[in-house]
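Methods: example folding runs. The two proteins below were folded one after another, and each record is reproduced exactly as written to the output file, sequence line first and structure-token line second.
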Amino acid sequence: MWKVFGEEGVMVQFGPLWKERMIELSKRRKDRARFLELLEKADITHYLDIHQRLHVFRMDLPATCTKDDVEFLKSFVQRVIKSTEYPMVDLDDEEQRAALVISAEEAEDEHTSRMSGWYKMKQDEDRKRQGN
């Protein structure tokens, strides 16, 4: 059975389960209030990189969060992970490779940026044709 920090779950629930377990494991920690405040703002997702056999948890914070907030979260989560007896993810009591990515950048709309480049190129080509 899959587990996140010792709690059984199915892979599609790993993001919310990770968040729930971090809340539980952070009890009695200094600066917990700040951690919980930032965690509530975060969108936590999980995916499995099957090529690298790596579970990736992604914590996306609003763009209003500062570099200091990201550094604080990184440090806080590292302390929690080091102090717990459970691996971040395990399958049938065998620890799996896992990583956490913390970001406070706004997601770029790749489609819009690609299309705007294409439209600019098309306009340039149309101008050249009209000039000939």
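Second run, written to the same file directly after the first:
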Amino acid sequence: MGKKIIGLDIRHNAITAVLVTCGIKENVLSAYVRIPIALKSREDFHQAIPDTLLKVSEKIDFNEAVCVVSYPLEDIYIHNIRLPFTNRNKISQILPFEIESSLPFSVENMTLTFDLYNTFTNDTKISDILVACIKNDTLSNLLTVLSKKDINPDILTLNGYGTALYISKNHALKNNWLYIDIDQNNSQIFAGFTDSIYLIRTFKINITSNSLEKTFALNIKRTIAAISELYNIEALPETIFLSGSGLIKPDFEQNLSKLLDIPVKTTNLLDKSGLFYDMTVKHGWDEKYFDNALALALMKIKDQGNLNFRKGEFTKKKKWLQYKKDFLKTGSIFLIILFLSILTFFVKLYDIDNKTDQVSTKIHTVFKSVFPKTKKVFNPLLQMQANLKETKKNKLLFIDGKNTVKVINVLNEISRVISDKENIILTNFVFNQTNVIISGDADTFKSVDNVKLSLEKSDLFSNVTINYANMSKYQNKIKFKLKTDL
């Protein structure tokens, strides 16, 4: 049997799933289903998902399937930002600090994902960035709900992104374009230029309104005006694409096209996807309901898209590899390794005890050679830190008795001294005129030590200490906190 990929489009009014079976020679559309959700209030949304997924599983088997899930855009915060560098690791480190002031919640309580769209500048040192943020509580609750149905998605993104991504990569567009995902109570506009998505916004609608086309035309014109103001794009979009369960009015595309004088057409991903299907399977297919879920499956097949909330503590955990070995042989190897480990531990412990006095003597000798004016050595470490702090303070510039070090200079220095080879993600930054506290994630304890050593080499920092460095309970990462004086 081939690999199974399921696109699962979760919305406040329905859950839509599309199953694609991937074989060596061809990829086949195997099944699809859409189950409505009846909600009394938005607060009941997560509680309604399990029962709806149960009905979905009656048509589609999730066992051993790779899942790509999208979540309503109303619960996701979108931002555009520009940074003066292009390295993705540096962007990951600096991004939380750059957008924190524009978020309604603390950045520590949110998960961020981003994509680059260097479309509107010829400067190779500048990055234009599309950022998507979701509350950790919301993400955790959703993954918990999905796990109850044995669904552990590889990708978790926002509604409509998969379809917009497919349009950008497969329609050979030469200029500006728009994709509108029309839902029952709201719609989202994705703006793109050639093969990049650079703007996402949402607005409320009433699909039963007689003036629905005018509502869309007004919001599209506002979006075009905003694009013109932000990116200096004067030309109208060459095409506007539509899809979604809200496309229920007859001749909606034609009426909207007349109002805007722009070509408008609905998406039809299945016919252009290259998937094989039996005509009996295709019977009942309606692109306005199923294109978004199909686009999610195609994201995984084509390995496209960067807006994925499975980041940080929510990164998908790998399954333990299963080995078919003889139990007795495995147990014997384990006991041998355990015995050698214990023996090594005691040998090292004995060696450390013998060398403690020698090291202590060397420390005092080195200290006296570096700081000969110190008459009495009672705590070499604290005395050395105090002397270094005093020495480095003399190197800082002062105006009217005040330290002139700025936050941006500190961030720039941190980015400069820490090597790009270190897989470090900074998650928190606290600054005042006397010290800086840095928190983050690292792959190994050695990486934390390397960061500390790098900071100590800078003339801007002194008295660098590791407050803590512990293994995370939720992922294979080292949580650490560093404190350094200025």
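Comment on the second run: The longest strand covers residues 27-36.
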